[in-house]
Structures are given as structure tokens and as C-alpha cells.
């Protein structure tokens, strides 16, 4: 307990605000071993229960302390198909680290940093081998190559099933690829993790929009799949619904980040257009991780002033504390207790300013935070040249329109049994943001793992008749 938590080495803020290279540099061997020795090796480790995918933290961390890196890597690889990604972007402080026994009087073991260390060590040496079960003869279709779909596919492949992922975009990864900038999650890491899933035998068809050329019924009845897992995420942006939102220079965070990430618009030789932000004042509306990703990306694209405008307080922001800290260090300006009322534009239809109102704090709402309330007579105008709206996402309505017997909520999310991921349509399971709405990578992965176990059980129950369709449990 006398050993302090080892900090994550970072790029200097003055340098990193101009580059898309990773901000966090990772532990070296000695730092990782020292941090791992802080683990108390609890008999009933709460950290494992706090991990949505059930990584055996109590086993891999002591192995790092003992310098058995190969053993630690093997354990992590068996439980987490995207360990190097989780070690970078998951909110460990609210999950495994948040329930660490050391957190009560000291600072928790840096589980996320250690997971990143061992996953990177493993990747650089070629990766651990994970043996799969004998082929079952069953075929499973996975809709969406995001965190939920990739995790479900990897687990099913290890169970011996033949898996094909259908991804609407031209690169796999889902929100990992289009929503998270390279300075938080390098493209090399995504490619390596997806490559390992392909090595398990998983086939990935890109540019395949299920619900358009093919439906879920087509997959089940015409293509011969025995089950379908839907992990298509929540990629439809929400908007503010205020005057002027259609002006040139106002965009959703989804559009902005997709252009930058998937289409590599951050590169000097990029041909995909992004708003010219050099010397511009850019306002981002929202307080989550997507808002932080957008404002820090705008800064790297040359914005003179990159500003977060949020209707609550910093303490109420859903963004990770690390992301807020990194943004402030890089020079991002955070204005709280303000809300947009109207975007103003010039004669050519380009945004030139935003009218804002100051907010007071009312009673607590359902989230436990104090409800923001506009203060009469407090409106003011802020000059801007670009605005990015990052206030959340909803599922794409394509599946809802084309699969009538798949029950949805009023929000457009799919109705499932939370313990299994089974939908109301026989043979179809779902998980991730398509079920919960916009949430975290690790929660989507946990849903993918639960669904994989249930699909496997259903398929094995039907094994005497391989052509039988499993029955979804509601």
C-alpha cells in the first residue's frame, strides 16, 4: 500500500494538440511490474465482478507482477477479444477500478493501464493463441462490426460456430473506427484486434447494409444462418432542434468524426472535405466523450478557439475525467451552464454566431443531477465559424422498418431479455447501443458475450437437427 499508483506517461500538451498521435504512451515493463505489485490479490475480487466482460483481473495482474507476461496475456486474450482497445478507452474508474478495495483509502490499481500494457506486449510478439472448440456445423450471422458484434463473433468462433459479420461501412470497428480519434485509439490497434478475430475464422463482409439489400429474414431463411446477432449500434445523431441548425458550418459529431476518422480527413493528403477550421472559433455542444473527441479533434485541425458549451456543470459531465483533463491541458475552453437558443448566419447561409442562454440549477432529475433551467434575460451572442452538435445518438431506423416482428421501444432500440440478449423474434439476439442507446464500449462487449453464450446454448440444444431454428427466449 506504500507504493503510489503509477501515472500514465503522456505526450506534452503543447506538442500533442497539433498531432493525431496517441496521447497516452503506455507503461514500460518496470512501471507495469511496479503497478501490478500494488494488487492485494483479494480472495473475492470485486474488480472481476465490476468488469462487464468478466476479465480475470485477479489472475492476470499478479502474473504481471511475477513477470510472467505470456501467462497474463493468455488469460486476458481468453476473456477479452479487444483488450488493447479496452485498456485505452473503457471507463475503468466507473467499473473494475471503481470497486477496487484499494480505492477505499488509497487509489485503485491501474487495471486499465495494465490491461493495455499486457495487450500491447502480446500484440508486439505476435499474439496469444486461443484454441477453439470443434466445428459444430452451425452458422451465425452478426450484424455490425462494432464492439458488441466483434465480441459476440469472437466468442462464437471459439465455441466452434461458423460466423459471418455484416458491416455497413467500408471498415470494421463500428464506433471504434468512426467515432474515436486516433490520438485516443490508434488505427493500428483496431486493425490488429480485428485481425485476431479474423484469425479465429470469422468472416467480415463490409459495405453490407442489412435491412436494405438483405433483411434479417433473408439471413435466416435464404442464406441458411441458424441465428442472428444484431449489434448495429446507434449511429443516428440527435439534434438541438433550434433555428439555424441547417446553416453551413453546423454539423453533428457523427458526421464530423466519421469524416475525420474513417475517411482519414486528418491527413495532409486527404481528399475528403472537412470544414476548414484553420483559425476558426469552433463550438461543440455536449458534455460526453463524443463532445470531448470532437472539440479536441477540432483543435488538432487548426481551430483558433475550441470550445465546449454545456448546459450543466463540469461535475455533471458524463465524459471521463481523464478526457476532460486532457482537453483542458490542450487549451480547450469549457463554458458551463449555457445552452444554445439559435444559430445565426450570414447572407450566404454560413454560421457566424450562436445565441446562448445562461442556465441555473433546479431540482434533481432522474439522472440524479440538478435540472438545468434557463435564466430569464440572460441571453448573449458568441461569435463562431463552426458548430458541432454532440448530444447523443439513436439507432438507425432501417431494421425497424424492414423487420416488423422485431419489437422496438419508442426510442427505436430493440427489446431484449437483458440476461440473454434474446429478442422477440425467434433466432434473433441483440446487444450494445442498438439495445441500450449510446453507452460505453465495454458494456456493448459485455452484451455481446452474454448473447454468444445464449446463442451457443440454443444451437447445442438443437444439435440433433442442425437445420432447426433456435428459439429466442423472452
Q: Can you tell me about this structure?
A:
The chain folds into three domains: 13-124, Orthogonal Bundle (Fumarate Reductase Iron-sulfur Protein, Chain B, domain 2); 139-235 and 394-461, FAD/NAD(P)-binding domain, CATH 3.50.50; 239-391, FAD/NAD(P)-binding domain, CATH 3.50.50. The longest helix is centred in the C-terminal third of the chain and has 21 residues, at 441-461. It has helices at 13-16, 29-36, 46-49, 57-65, 69-79, 83-89, 111-124, 147-158, 175-178, 187-199, 216-222, 253-261, 289-300, 321-329, 398-402, 433-436, 441-461; strands at residues 139-143, 162-166, 203-205, 227-230, 236-237, 250-252, 281-285, 305-310, 333-336, 338-345, 351-364, 370-374, 380-383, 386-389, 393-394, 428-430. With 474 residues, it is α/β, with parallel strands linked by helices. The termini are far apart. Helix 8 (147-158) links the parallel strand 1 and strand 2 (162-166). Helix 2 packs across helix 4 (57-65) and helix 2 packs across helix 7.
Amino acid at each position: 500500500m506504500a507504493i503510489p499508483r503509477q501515472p500514465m506517461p503522456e505526450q506534452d500538451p503543447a506538442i500533442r494538440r497539433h498531432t493525431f498521435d496517441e496521447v497516452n504512451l503506455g507503461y514500460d515493463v518496470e512501471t507495469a511490474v511496479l503497478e501490478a505489485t500494488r494488487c492485494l490479490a483479494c480472495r473475492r475480487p470485486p474488480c472481476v465482478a465490476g468488469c462487464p466482460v468478466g476479465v480475470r483481473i485477479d489472475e492476470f495482474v499478479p502474473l504481471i507482477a511475477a513477470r510472467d507476461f505470456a501467462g497474463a496475456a493468455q488469460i486476458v486474450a481468453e476473456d477479452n477479444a479487444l483488450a488493447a482497445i479496452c485498456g485505452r478507452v473503457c471507463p475503468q474508474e466507473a467499473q473494475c477500478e471503481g470497486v477496487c478495495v484499494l480505492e477505499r483509502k488509497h487509489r485503485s490499481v491501474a487495471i486499465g493501464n495494465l490491461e493495455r500494457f499486457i495487450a500491447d506486449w502480446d500484440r508486439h510478439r505476435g499474439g496469444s493463441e486461443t484454441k477453439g472448440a470443434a466445428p459444430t456445423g452451425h452458422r451465425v450471422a452478426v450484424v455490425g462490426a462494432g464492439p458488441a458484434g466483434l465480441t459476440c463473433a469472437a466468442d462464437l468462433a471459439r465455441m466452434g460456430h461458423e460466423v459471418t459479420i455484416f458491416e455497413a461501412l467500408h471498415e470494421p470497428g463500428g464506433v471504434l473506427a468512426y467515432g474515436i480519434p486516433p490520438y485516443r485509439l490508434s488505427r493500428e490497434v483496431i486493425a490488429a484486434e480485428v485481425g485476431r478475430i479474423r484469425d479465429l475464422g470469422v468472416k467480415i463482409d463490409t459495405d453490407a447494409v442489412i435491412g436494405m439489400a438483405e433483411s434479417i429474414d433473408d439471413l435466416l431463411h435464404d442464406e441458411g444462418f441458424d441465428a442472428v446477432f444484431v449489434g448495429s449500434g446507434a449511429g443516428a445523431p440527435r439534434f438541438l432542434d433550434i433555428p439555424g441548425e441547417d446553416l453551413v458550418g453546423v454539423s453533428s459529431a457523427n458526421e464530423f468524426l466519421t469524416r475525420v476518422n474513417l475517411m482519414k480527413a486528418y491527413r495532409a493528403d486527404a481528399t475528403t472535405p472537412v470544414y476548414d477550421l484553420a483559425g476558426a472559433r469552433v463550438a461543440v455542444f455536449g458534455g460526453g466523450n463524443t463532445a470531448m473527441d470532437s472539440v479536441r479533434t477540432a483543435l488538432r485541425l487548426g481551430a483558433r478557439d475550441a470550445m465546449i458549451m454545456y448546459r450543466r456543470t463540469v461535475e455533471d459531465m458524463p465524459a471521463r475525467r481523464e478526457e476532460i483533463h486532457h482537453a483542458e491541458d490542450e487549451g480547450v475552453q469549457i463554458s458551463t451552464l449555457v445552452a444554445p437558443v439559435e444559430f445565426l448566419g450570414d447572407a450566404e447561409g454560413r454560421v457566424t454566431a450562436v445565441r446562448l442562454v445562461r442556465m441555473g440549477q433546479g431540482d434533481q432529475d432522474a439522472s440524479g443531477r440538478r435540472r438545468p433551467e434557463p435564466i430569464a434575460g440572460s441571453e448573449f451572442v458568441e461569435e463562431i465559424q463552426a458548430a458541432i452538435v454532440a448530444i447523443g445518438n439513436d439507432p438507425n431506423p432501417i431494421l425497424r422498418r424492414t423487420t416488423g416482428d422485431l419489437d422496438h421501444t419508442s426510442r427505436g432500440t430493440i427489446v431484449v431479455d437483458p440476461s440473454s440478449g434474446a429478442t422477440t423474434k425467434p433466432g434473433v439476439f441483440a446487444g450494445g447501443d442498438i439495445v441500450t442507446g449510446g453507452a460505453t464500449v465495454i458494456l456493448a462487449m459485455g452484451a455481446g458475450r452474454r448473447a454468444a453464450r445464449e446463442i451457443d446454448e440454443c444451437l447445442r440444444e438443437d444439435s440433433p437437427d442442425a437445420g432447426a431454428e433456435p428459439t429466442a427466449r423472452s
